[in-house]
Amino acid sequence: MKSSVDIHVVLSTYEDMEDFHDDPDEASERLNFILHAVYDNAEEDIETQRLEQILHYAWESWQQDKHLLEIDDDELLDWVDHTLATWDDASNDEIS
Known about the structure:
Blueprint: H1 7-10, H2 14-17, H3 24-41, H4 48-62, H5 73-86
Helix pairs in contact: 3-4, 3-5
């Protein structure tokens, strides 16, 4: 269940981003925007493990992405929607 996941545990900080981005504060805000969007848009009855895997995938997909600061909110939300909608169709069993 969604309520079993504490979103604050997975949020990024300046330190998480400083080795990869020129503006680590902004990069952290962008990654946290994505993580919150995943959490907020996930169904209330989503399996805890599934939500944790999707949050981990979002973190791994975006934390080091040099284009993170160039992508607008709508495109990031589209990515979140697509990821949530297709998660079961993708081969994501190896992500834990």
